[in-house]
C-alpha cells in the first residue's frame, strides 16, 4: 500500500481514520461463542476502517474462523454481540445470505467450491443457490467470467471442472469470486472482503497476485480482513492486526510498528525458541530409498537417493513438478513411471499402489487434510489409529480403552487442542487437524516418510513442536521427504533441498547454503534461467 493510500492512524481510540469522525466499515462488539461447555470466543471486539487491510492472527484453535463464521451467519453468537456496518446496526445472528447482501464476502478455509461443477458454475454458485438454472444467461455469464479472469490475470479455462484443478488454482477461483462479489454487491467505495487463510495454498507468485488484488480493493475504499499464520505476510500487507489468544483479544497493533517477535509473543503468550535442524546429512548412513527416472507429469526423469535419517526437501514453483514426486512414489498418481528401490527390492512406479508402498514402510501425508489425508466424520482416535490398528487388538477384538490412552498421550505430545480422542476430526481447527494427521504417520516410524506441505495452516508455536517430531523421526532412522513451497520451513528442518523447474531437479542445496533467502532465490532463478537439468542426485 502506498503512503497516500494508507489510512492515517488516530491512536486516541485505536482506530485509523482517513476522514475525521469516519465510522468503522465493520465494528463487531462483544462477540462470544460457546460450543458445548467450551467458550471458544470470549467477548471479542474488532473494528476495521474503510480502506483498511486488517490482519487477524492467533494460534490454532484461538477462535479466528469461529469469529469469521459468526459474521458470515454460519454460527449464532451468544446474546450481547453487536455488529455495526458503516455506522448502521446489522443483524446478529446474521440471517442466511444476509452478509452477502450487506456487501461482505468471504473466502473460507475450505474454499466452498463444488468440485464436480465447472469453474464457471462455481463462480456463479451463489446465484445458482437463489436462481433457477434457466434464469441464468450462461453465454453472458461465461463472457463476464472470462473478463474477470483477464482482469485478475487468471489463466484457467472456465469450463474446467474444479476437481481437475490444483489446490492453488482452486484457491484463486474462490478468491476471485469473493472479490467480484464485493465489487458487485457493496456499492462504490464500500464492502468488506474476509479472507480466512487464503495463502497456504498459493505459490509465492499467487501470494503476490493476491496482495496486488487486495491493494486495488482497498484503494477503492473497501476493507479487507485477512486471517493468516505467516507473520511476514501480515506485516507486508496489513495496516493493523488483531491477535486472538484462547478466544480472547490479546491485542491490536499497528502492523508496521510491531516486530516479528512482538507478533509471536502476542500469539503464543510467551517467547518461542525457533527450531533449527543440525543441517548436516550423515553420509555414512545407508541409502534408504532410490528413485530412478521418475515421471509424473510435469515431473520428468527425476532421480535421487535419500539416506536413512536424512530430511530431504523438494521445492520449486507450483507447476514445476516437485509436488508430484511423493504421490508417484506412493502409487497415488496415475500415469507415472520410473522405479523405486527400497528394502532391497525394486518397484515399477507404473504398477505401484498405496497398499504396496505401505507394505514397504512408506508413509505419505498429502496436503489436502480433510480430503485425502483424513476423514472428517471419524474421531481423532479413529483417524490417528488407522495405520497401527493391529497393535490394539486383543482376544476380544479392538481395545478402545488402550487406544484412547495412546491417542490422548499423542495429543499431549503434539499439543492437539482440544485433546479429546473421541471428537470428530472435522470439528478441530485446521491446524489442529493437521497435527492429528502428522501424529498418525510419525507414530509408525516409517522407513520413508513423505510429507506434502506438512505445516500448512499450523501456527508458529505448534510448528516448532512438529519440526522437533520430524527431526526425532529422522534421528530414529526414518528418511523424510518434505515437499513444500515454504522456504522458511525447509530451511528450518532440511539437511538437503532439491529445487525443481519445468519438471526437473535443477539445483541442490546442502548444509549452510540452506537458508530461507537462498531457497527462494534459487526457486525463482531456476524458473527463469533453467539451463542443464541435474539428471541424478545422490
Ligand atoms: N462446530 C464446532 N463444534 C465444536 N467445536 C468447534 C466447532 N468449530 C470450532 N470448534 C472449536 O473451536 C475452537 C476454535 O476453532 P477455530 O476454527 O475458530 O480456530 P482458528 O483460530 O481458526 O484455528 P486455525 O488457525 O487452526 O484454523 C477450536 O477448539 C475448535 O475445535
Automatic annotation (TrEMBL):
PROSITE patterns: ABC_TRANSPORTER_1, ABC_TRANSPORTER_2
Statement: the UniProt record of this protein carries the keyword Repeat: yes
GO molecular function, one term: ATP binding
Keyword Nucleotide-binding applies: yes
ABC transporter domain ranges (all copies): 26-271, 278-527
InterPro entries hit by this protein: AAA+_ATPase, ABC_carbohydrate_import_ATPase, ABC_transporter-like_ATP-bd, ABC_transporter-like_CS, P-loop_NTPase
Pfam families: ABC_tran (PF00005)
Transmembrane segments: none
Leader sequence residues: none
Keywords: ATP-binding, Nucleotide-binding, Repeat, Sugar transport, Transport
The protein's name in its UniProt record: Monosaccharide ABC transporter ATP-binding protein, CUT2 family
The species this protein was found in: Thalassovita litoralis
Amino acid at each position: 500500500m502506498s503512503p497516500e493510500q494508507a489510512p492515517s492512524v488516530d491512536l486516541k481510540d485505536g482506530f485509523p481514520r482517513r476522514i475525521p469522525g469516519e465510522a468503522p466499515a465493520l465494528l463487531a462488539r462483544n462477540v462470544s461463542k460457546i460450543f458445548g461447555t467450551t467458550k471458544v470466543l470470549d467477548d471479542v471486539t474488532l473494528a476495521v476502517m474503510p480502506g483498511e487491510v486488517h490482519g487477524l492472527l492467533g494460534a490454532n484453535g484461538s477462535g479466528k474462523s469461529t469469529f469469521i463464521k459468526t459474521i458470515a451467519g454460519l454460527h449464532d453468537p451468544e446474546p450481547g454481540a453487536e455488529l455495526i456496518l458503516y455506522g448502521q446496526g446489522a443483524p446478529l445472528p446474521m440471517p442466511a445470505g444476509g452478509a452477502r447482501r450487506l456487501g461482505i464476502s468471504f473466502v473460507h478455509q475450505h474454499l466452498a467450491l463444488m468440485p464436480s461443477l465447472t469453474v464457471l458454475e462455481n463462480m456463479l454458485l451463489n446465484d445458482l443457490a437463489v436462481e433457477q438454472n434457466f434464469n441464468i444467461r450462461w453465454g453472458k455469464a461465461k463472457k463476464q467470467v472470462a473478463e474477470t479472469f483477464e482482469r485478475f490475470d487468471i489463466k484457467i479455462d472456465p469450463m474446467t471442472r474444479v476437481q481437475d484443478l490444483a489446490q492453488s488454482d482452486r484457491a484463486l477461483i474462490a478468491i476471485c469470486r469473493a472479490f467480484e462479489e464485493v465489487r458487485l454487491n457493496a456499492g462504490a467505495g464500500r464492502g468488506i472482503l474476509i479472507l480466512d487463510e487464503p495463502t497456504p495454498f498459493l505459490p509465492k507468485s499467487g501470494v503476490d497476485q493476491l496482495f496486488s488484488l487486495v491493494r486495488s480493493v482497498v484503494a477503492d475504499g473497501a476493507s479487507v480482513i485477512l486471517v493468516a499464520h505467516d507473520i511476514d505476510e501480515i506485516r507486508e500487507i496489513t495496516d493493523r492486526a488483531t491477535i486472538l489468544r484462547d478466544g480472547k483479544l490479546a491485542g491490536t497493533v499497528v502492523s508496521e510498528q510491531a516486530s516479528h517477535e512482538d507478533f509471536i509473543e502476542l500469539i503464543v503468550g510467551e517467547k518461542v525458541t525457533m527450531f533449527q535442524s543440525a543441517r548436516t546429512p550423515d553420509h555414512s548412513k545407508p541409502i534408504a530409498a532410490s528413485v530412478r527416472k521418475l515421471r509424473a507429469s510435469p515431473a520428468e526423469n527425476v532421480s535421487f537417493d535419500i539416506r536413512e535419517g536424512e530430511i530431504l526437501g523438494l521445492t520449486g514453483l507450483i507447476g514445476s513438478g516437485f509436488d508430484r514426486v511423493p504421490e508417484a512414489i506412493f502409487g497415488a498418481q496415475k500415469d507415472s513411471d520410473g522405479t523405486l528401490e527400497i528394502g532391497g527390492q525394486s518397484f515399477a512406479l507404473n504398477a505401484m499402489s498405496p497398499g504396496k508402498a505401505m507394505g514397504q514402510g512408506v508413509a505419505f501425508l498429502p496436503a489436502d487434510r480433510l480430503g485425502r489425508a483424513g476423514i472428517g466424520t471419524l474421531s481423532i482416535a479413529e483417524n490417528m489409529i488407522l495405520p497401527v490398528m493391529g497393535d490394539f487388538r486383543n482376544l476380544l477384538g479392538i481395545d478402545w480403552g488402550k487406544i484412547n490412552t495412546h491417542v490422548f498421550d499423542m495429543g499431549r505430545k503434539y499439543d492437539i487442542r482440544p485433546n479429546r480422542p473421541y471428537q470428530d476430526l472435522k470439528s478441530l481447527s485446521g491446524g489442529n487437524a493437521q497435527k492429528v494427521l502428522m501424529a498418525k504417520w510419525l507414530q509408525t516410524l516409517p522407513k520413508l516418510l513423505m510429507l506434502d506441505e506438512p505445516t500448512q495452516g499450523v501456527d508458529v508455536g505448534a510448528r516448532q513442536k512438529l519440526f522437533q517430531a520430524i527431526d526425532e523421526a529422522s534421528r530414529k532412522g526414518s528418511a523424510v521427504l518434505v515437499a513444500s513451497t515454504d522456504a522458511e520451513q525447509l530451511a528450518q528442518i532440511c539437511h538437503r533441498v532439491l529445487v525443481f523447474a519445468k519438471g526437473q531437479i535443477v539445483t541442490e542445496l546442502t548444509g549452510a547454503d540452506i537458508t530461507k533467502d537462498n531457497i527462494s532465490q534459487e526457486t525463482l532463478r531456476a524458473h527463469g534461467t533453467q539451463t542443464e537439468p541435474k539428471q541424478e542426485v545422490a
